[in-house]
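hiii so um. not sure if this is the right channel but i have a protein structure encoded as tokens and i wanna go backwards to a sequence. like what aa goes where. can anyone help
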């Protein structure tokens, strides 16, 4: 049987991936802006435009990253309409204890526990570090899974916390949010600056349109590919680590079978960035193209790997 990586191996691997992501994102972004601008402008003007676009974009990303670092977990929990539960709440005490027990088995601090009042089955973890992490579970997940399956899902989320995946998710969501907003602003500028007959104005509008096109390529082609390459490996790692925590890979495999029959969280339909942090896609059924670019590997492969661990 193939050796399974330890929690520490996954932490080290994700730290390396985070560093590569931090390096690759700005380098690819700068290259795309320059190449697209060079199509309609001389090389010196293309270089100047790239610098003028890149610097404020990076500053905005830095500012938004600080805001996300401070308030990102609250923003994600609010988007899911999640509410916190405590061990003093008799109705939810069993769920609270289940999360606490899995955290002890994983050797991690107990995260805050949240419930999403939705009959679908899904879950996610968020927070800056294991010491201030949160786990959110839908009401449907709690009702429809048995105790062992629920522990498997909680262990999967605890694995994301232990492997520091939640920090990487925050970086991805922040970067994408800023560049999408910037693309919209640049398109508006291009439209308003291209209305006259002045050649300089028209040339400026052409440059802005190419910058906007570069943003669109970066946002909708490059970024999904990078996210897919990183996120799929992290899901496999969380499945493997979660199975190690519970010593029951079949429990998580059975939970995944049930979850994929109804994983849609309606309040997250318009929050596409949340798909990467959930145990399964919280949107509706995926089309072929979106499945190819999905942040999660096919559930059949995840189940197959878990079953191989059990055997």
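sure thing!! here u go:
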């Amino acid at each position: 049987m193939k050796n399974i990586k330890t929690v520490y191996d996954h932490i080290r691997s994700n730290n390396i991936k985070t560093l590569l992501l931090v390096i690759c994102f700005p380098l690819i972004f700068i290259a795309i802006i320059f190449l697209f601008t060079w199509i309609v402008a001389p090389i010196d003007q293309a270089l100047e435009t790239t610098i003028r676009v890149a610097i404020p974009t990076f500053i905005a990303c830095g500012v938004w990253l600080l805001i996300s670092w401070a308030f990102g977990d609250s923003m994600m929990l609010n988007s899911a309409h999640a509410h916190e539960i405590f061990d003093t709440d008799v109705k939810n005490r069993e769920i609270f204890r289940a999360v606490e027990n899995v955290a002890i088995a994983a050797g991690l601090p107990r995260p805050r526990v949240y419930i999403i009042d939705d009959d679908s089955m899904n879950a996610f973890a968020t927070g800056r570090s294991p010491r201030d992490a949160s786990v959110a579970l839908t009401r449907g997940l709690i009702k429809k899974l048995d105790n062992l399956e629920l522990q498997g899902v909680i262990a999967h989320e605890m694995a994301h916390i232990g492997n520091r995946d939640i920090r990487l998710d925050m970086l991805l969501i922040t970067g994408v949010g800023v560049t999408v907003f910037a693309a919209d602003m640049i398109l508006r500028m291009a439209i308003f600056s291209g209305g006259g007959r002045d050649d300089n104005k028209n040339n400026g509008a052409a440059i802005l349109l190419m910058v906007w096109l570069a943003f669109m390529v970066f946002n909708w082609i490059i970024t999904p590919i990078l996210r897919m390459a990183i996120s799929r490996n992290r899901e496999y790692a969380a499945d493997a680590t979660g199975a190690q925590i519970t010593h029951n890979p079949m429990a998580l495999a059975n939970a995944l079978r049930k979850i994929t029959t109804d994983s849609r969280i309606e309040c997250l339909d318009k929050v596409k960035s949340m798909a990467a942090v959930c145990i399964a896609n919280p949107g509706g059924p995926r089309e072929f193209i979106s499945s190819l670019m999905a942040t999660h590997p096919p559930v059949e492969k995840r189940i197959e790997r878990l079953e191989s661990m059990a055997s």
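oh and Residues 120 and 140 are 5 Å apart (CA to CA).
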